[in-house]
Amino acid sequence: MTDGLRFQRRVSGCPDAARLLIASLLATAPVAVRAQQATPADPVPDVAQSLDAMPDIGVDWPDMAQPDSVVPLPADPADPAAQAVDAAPTASDPASGQEPAEEAASFADAGEERRYTVQLNGVDAIADAQFTQRFDELSVLKQGDGKPANLAQINRRMKEDGELLDRLLRAKGYYAARIRSAVTAPPAGSDRLLVAFDIVPGTQYLLASVDVLGLAEAGEREAKLRAAFLPKPGDPVDADAILAGRDALATSLAESGFPFARVDEPEVRIDHEERKGDLDLIVAPGGFRRFGAIRMDDTRLFDADHVQDIARFDPGDTYMASDVEDLRRAIVATGLVSSVTLTPQDAGDGEHVDLDVALRPAPLRTIAGELGYGTGEGYRAEVSWQHRNLFPPEGAVTVRGVVGTQEQTASFTYRRNNFKRRDNVLTGLVSVSNIRRDAYDARTITLAGGLERQTNILFQKNWVWRVGAELIASDEADAFSGGARRTFFIGAVPLSLTYDGSDDLLNPSKGFRLGGRVSPELSFQGSSFGYARVQLDGSLYQPVGEKVVVAARARFGTIIGSTVDRIAPSRRFYAGGGASVRGYGYQAIGPRYGPDDDPVGGKSLAEFSLEGRIRFGNFGVVPFVDAGNISTTFLPRFRDLRIGAGMGVRYYSNFGPIRVDVGTPLNPQSGDPKIAVYVSLGQAF
Fold first, then answer.
1. Fewer CB within 10 Å of terminal CB in the chain, N or C?
2. 604 - beta bridge partners?
């Protein structure tokens, strides 16, 4: 066994060479266990006789030839309560005063099958949640709970669960426990038999000594490593605590520069006369190492230098296993590999450890399609082709086309992930679009680029930023121009900074987010003029109980400089739609102008949202209320807020919630729809 705890026992002061591995006590899968704890009055079983597999369980009985599992414990003079239980009458014969046969029944067995209830008595003071969970998972009685069984089946299961209880008690340090069980007629008001275990745990054995051998080889780091192993003399002989201490020590070694450390199985020598145990743990640190070089044989996707750019450590840093795991996850997050293995290799100089990277490429090309419909936006079809490593390392190219009721777009995007540094993304875009909204009609050519630090599902970051540049040529018409087209040449430098203090990227349940965006722009349309677009966003998430999250959002925006009619219609602020004020049409909120009463956008924006996210398993409902307005002034006018309310449905998939929201305007303007429907991935905010 790779994980275990070895026990030796000392009977009458003489050590017994037999050792018992009890790692199976800590497993979560059900196992078959044998008879109850033997008492001094029990005869020693015939260990030469093998036991057959139980046909109704389907797994073999444990090897009872182990000496530790058959040698009876000596009398326990320190536990008079245990002696009292041994001498006490049971429910099967309350007047006899004699100890009953194990698993006796207090009623006549007619061979019928009955349901039963399992009850543990006497362990309330020591049975924590872990003890109870293990018994529930491993108990054969619990596995058959609710199903009819005859008395012979119940008795057999009682014997197995009696041994299970003894082993679970031993794992917590109770080696002198006394366990008696009986099945009795249904109590008043019930139609189920009562299977009861009466348990006296006895004295909990304590550690007399704790020796961690071999840590002296760690030199100056010995004290820190030794502190990671928490069990100490006087603590209970608790298998969980001992194994947790072993794991903590192994982790501390791996995080302190010892990639080749080995921690053996803990060994406990039990002395039943003294009710104590001696714990030994042998450690081989294997030598302190620092990170050396990254080595790769397959460089088709990227080379070792690029992997070093992704790593959060530099050559010469102290080896840490968590840094290696972080690098493995980062390589997987590139989307270019289907599997990756990182193996520490001794560099041969006694000081460094190299990292051998072995990976298997994933398919690099993707063709994707999308069909959709939105109230106020109409039908929309999108198709794209992507090669994720056309320009190694991680240079992706995407060609995209959109055909819809109100939009036709063709674009070419270059994206370079992990550009010069972990999580930095370099992007470039060329697009040609024809967009026809109620607010404006624009035929636009865009050339844009940017450098940003992005967040993602695997590595959600607190701080995210972007620095970009845009050159735009756009031929546009709106209500202000009376349908006449105007040509705008625009240069912009958008800057953004966001702090994400939430607990999940797509489905936050607590925390908050704050973000700001500033875009100084220079526009030429007949003459040149400048202005700056400023926007602030904030959202808050507060859990209320286990199934309800209250979420709130606010957004403010303003354009400093110029007047609304001079600014290109596509660069103004708009409100309304699934990511804005639900219940209203897309970009439909705000001032309107012209014979068709078309929205014209504005210089300032205010939006507010409040919703309750109530979850039931994989589904949920979300009542919401949104409000917002667009103004042509520098500051928004809050007295003209448009309010929408509705109900949403959520399906919580493995990759995030899928939402369907249905909203209605509470104070609509002329021409606003009575109901609007929105479908998308992720929460509304």
1. N
2. 558, 631
CA–CA separation, 517 vs 534, rounded Å? 6
Residue pair 587/574 in contact by the 8 Å Cβ criterion: yes
Question: Which is it for strands 548-560 and 527-544: parallel, antiparallel or unpaired?
Answer: antiparallel
Q: Which residue intervals of the chain bear CATH 3.10.20.310?
A: 290-361
Say which amino acid occupies 62. Answer: P
Instruction: Quote the pLDDT of residue 454.
Output: 85
For the chain, give the mean pLDDT. 84
Which of 89-98, 237-246, 594-603 has the weakest average pLDDT? 89-98
Question: Could you give the CA distance from residue 134 to residue 118 in angstroms, rounded to a whole number?
Answer: 15
Domain with CATH 2.40.160.50 in the chain: 437-441+450-612+628-642
CATH of domain 437-441+450-612+628-642: 2.40.160.50
Question: Which of the residue ranges 88-102, 159-173, 311-325, 427-441 would you say has the lowest mean pLDDT?
Answer: 88-102
User: Two tokens at 432?
Assistant: 């040609």
Each residue's pLDDT tens digit, 392-445: 999 999 999 999 999 999 999 999 999 999 999 999 999 999 999 888 999 999
How far apart are alpha carbons 678 and 674 in whole angstroms?
Answer: 14
Residue listed under structure tokens 């053996």: 264
CB distance 183 to 194 below 8 Å: yes
DSSP state of 296: E
Long-range own/partner contacts, residues 334-338 (CB < 8 A, 24 or more apart): 334/394, 334/417, 334/418, 335/362, 335/388, 336/301, 336/302, 336/361, 336/362, 336/364, 336/388, 336/389, 336/394, 337/301, 337/361, 337/362, 338/362
Q: Which of 472, 432, 428 is nearest to 450 (CA)?
A: 428
Three-state SS string over 576-626 comes to CCCCCCCCCCCCCECCEECCCCEECCECEEEEEEEEEEEEECCEEEEEEEE
3-state class (DSSP) for residue 233:
coil
- What are the tokens at 597? 């009463």
What CA–CA distances, in Å, run from 232 to 204, 220, 279, 430? 15, 21, 9, 67
Cβ 541 vs Cβ 502: under 8 Å? yes
pLDDT band at residue 108, thresholds of 50, 70 and 90?
A: low
Length of the chain: 685
CATH architecture assignment, domain 290-361: Roll (3.10)
Pairing outcome for strands 656-665 and 676-681: antiparallel
